[in-house]
Amino acid sequence: MRKFLIAAAAVIVVFVAAVAAIVLSGNLLPVLGRLFGPDHDFDPARAVAAPDYASEPAWAALPWKADEADLTPQGVGGPDEQQSAPVDVFFIHPTGYLRGASWNSPIDLESATEENTRWMLANQASAFNGCCRVYAPLYREASIFAFFDGDGRNGFPALDLAYRDVLRAFDHFIERMSDGRPFVIASHSQGTIHAQRLLAERIDRAPLFERMVAAYIIGGGLPLDVFERSYQRIAPCEDATDLHCVISWDTIGEGGRRDRASLQWHEGRYERSKGKQTLCTNPLSWSRGEQKAAASRNLGAEPIAGLFIMDFWDPDEPHGIQYTELASPLPGHTSAQCRHGTLFVEEQLEEPFVTYTLAPGKNYHGLDYPLFYMDIRENAKARVRAYLESKPR
Fold first, then answer.
1. Pseudo-torsion of CA 145, 150, 153, 157, nearest 10°?
2. Residue 279: inside a domain
3. What is the pLDDT of residues 221-272, one digit of tens each?
4. How far apart are CA 188 and CA 89, in angstroms?
5. Which parts of 174-256 are beta strand (E)?
6. 13, 62, 91, 200: most buried by Cβ count inside 10 Å?
């Protein structure tokens, strides 16, 4: 009983301190960072060894091994097309490391963090297996607390370390795996921050520009001025079959608001911005206009498979979650409209998506892919066809 009372008192103290700090600061995220984030400054020497991308275990998905990126929704028509696909996709997964033990993930394959990575493969990366062979590297992703670090003193170096892994994986992919084939870049959230930098440093001003079909870098709040400041040739996609360009959106439920800052790379450093106009590609019309696209144009939202483990403090132990199938898509599930750089959709008040709508401001960040899964799948196939038809035979 004594131990229970001590533990209960500790929880109360933490809760009261959190409430007080939130009231005083008006900002929840830095408070969470102070309470549950790493208790040390970033030090690259404390990170685990960098992955060896010549080794299969360093990849979450590869076309020739069984992984969650192989899954296809029921009724879509047969298995994935990776063995015969003429194009590759390099997929950069978002943040799955939600613990504060370190600033970067330890890449423990038997952990809740890597179960979250498998969630991303099943619910996001698998959308591309109808057009492409899917390559997705594991990397020492920055902890979620890197984004709560107000001045970036620790968070930005953690993101840089994560990006260096992504860069090495991409270089290995290009030099040893792709065999000169065209490719798609795809990402979400933290992965999109890394993808935006990768486009600037490896693709925009290089011969690889011609091999890039398109970049689906979603859920990263991509300011339009990134294109003016960071890229010479890469531009936003303007229609459903535009090539060598960028597709991006951030999803919010109707009646919600977008008030979070964007994070991007520019001229050798990370920077935060708030209030800037961001790129919004409507995934039902594939245009940047603000005309509303009716739900009848939605080819199919995909019910979420498995469980994304939202746990900030318990040990990073696996939950035994397995992925064996994807449910049938839900055609006509939601309309979509770009307004002021944000994609607004119908409120998701019931399952299968309501569990992922609990963020403040009706931020549907976790639904950026699932609500438009079949639209992404079919559009990627259409852009690949357009790319191949544009090249001399």
1. 40
2. yes
3. 999 999 999 999 999 999 999 999 999 999 999 999 877 678 999 888 999 8
4. 14
5. 183-188, 212-218, 235-236, 245-247, 251-253
6. 91
Given pLDDT bands bounded at 50, 70 and 90, which one contains residue 275? confident
What does the pLDDT read at residue 33?
Answer: 65
Tracing tokens 């993808």 back to the chain, one arrives at: 195
Per the structure, the count of domains in the chain is 1
- DSSP string covering 96-135, please? ----SS-SB----SSSHHHHHHHHHHHHTGGGGTTTEEEE
Quote the CA–CA distance of 80 and 62 in Å, as a whole number. Answer: 13
CA distance 318 to 67: 17
Task: Name every residue whose Cβ is closer than 8 Å to that of residue 235 and which is 6 or more positions away in sequence.
Answer: 227, 245, 246
* Spatial separation of the C-alpha atoms in residues 322 and 324, rounded to whole Å: 6
Burial of 387 (0-12, 13-18, 19+ CB in 10 A): buried
Q: Which domain holds residue 199?
A: 37-390
Q: What is the pLDDT of residues 28-83, one digit of tens each?
A: 556 666 667 899 999 999 999 999 999 999 999 999 999 999 999 999 976 677 88
Classify residue 319: in a domain, yes or no.
yes
Residue 5 lies in a domain: no
Q: Strand ranges (DSSP E) for the chain? A: 59-61, 87-92, 132-137, 183-188, 212-218, 235-236, 245-247, 251-253, 262-266, 269-273, 336-339, 342-345
pLDDT digits (tens, 9 = 90+) for 133-162: 999 999 999 999 999 888 899 999 999 999
What CA–CA distance (Å, rounded) separates 87 from 135?
Answer: 11
Task: Give, as one character, the DSSP assignment of residue 27.
Answer: -
Domain-embedded: residue 1: no
Report the DSSP pairing between strands 212-218 and 235-236.
unpaired
The SS3 assignment for 149 reads coil
